[in-house]
Amino acid sequence: MSNPVFNENVVGQTRILEGEPMTINGAVNKTFILLALLVVAACYTWFLAFSGYTDKAQMLTIGGGIVGMVLAFVVIFTRKAMHVLTPLYAVCEGFFIGGISAVYAAAYAGIVMQAVFATFAVLASMLILYRSGAIRCTEKFRAVILTATLSVAVVYLIQIIASLFGRGIPQIFTSSPIGIGFSVVVVLIAAFNLIVDFDFIERGSQGLLEKKYEWYGAFGLMVSLVWLYLEILRLLAKLSDRR
Q1: Which sequence spans correspond to the domains of the chain?
Q2: What radius of gyration do the chain's Cα atoms show?
Q3: Is residue 13's pLDDT more than 90?
């Protein structure tokens, strides 16, 4: 699977024998719940940042990013208590996104709203392409997106390690044509991860997975949306620097 949250073991494992199975509507409703929690948390950090409480905002941004990452790994590898852990993840990511957005907003007027609108426009476009059958989530498609996603993760990891020694990967994190091209590619990869998310939710409902996997499907979708938003924000900042 492309999105690291999902793999064939998830879809192919426990099927419901009694009680309610996973449904598409259930996963969609839970996605809205997670999104609402994320937005509220993001607004709170944003409020702190622009109300002079920069220390608190910075603490929530850093803490939210770290705790959110830990919670994501716990959900991915244990798939337990998802009805509790995934909402907590959404709140932590909200704190993180709110702080990051405030930083970009202070440097680039109007960039945050542009990124928000662009993110939901991409989400709607990918959903239309998926539902119309224009893009099919085949095994080959998932393998290609998985490879691309992991490659981006490796590039970011190398950049983080290099930055600790005062170094960095040339060009791709700058506003040069190469840097902008890199961001465009990453945005596309993040967008195509949404197709895998849709496919998991649909196949999970058809395969009669347990009800709790509605939370897992919603969680995977949130991971992709957060990544997509941050990459669009980065791309818009690079484009603004070129003006």
Answers
A1: 13-241
A2: 18
A3: no
Position 237, amino acid: A
Among the listed residues 135, 115, 138, 116, the one whose alpha carbon sits nearest the alpha carbon of residue 125: 135
pLDDT (tens digit, 9 = 90+) per residue, 68-120?
999 999 999 988 889 999 999 999 999 999 999 999 999 999 999 999 999 99
pTM of structure: 0.89
Distance between CA atoms of residues 186 and 54, nearest Å = 30
DSSP one-letter string for 89-108:
HHHHHHHHHHHHHHHHHHHS
Measured in residues, the chain has a length of 243
Long-range contacts of 178-187 (CB under 8 A, 24+ apart): 179/238, 180/235, 180/238, 180/239, 180/242, 183/231, 183/234, 183/235, 183/238, 184/235, 186/152, 186/231, 187/122, 187/228, 187/231, 187/232, 187/235
Tokens of 77: 């590898």
3-class secondary structure, 61: helix
Contacts 24+ apart (CB under 8 A), 82-86: 82/212, 82/213, 82/215, 82/216, 82/219, 83/212, 83/215, 86/30, 86/34, 86/215, 86/216, 86/218, 86/219, 86/222
- Give the Å distances, CA to CA, from 29 to 17, 37, 155, 160, 213: 23, 13, 34, 36, 13
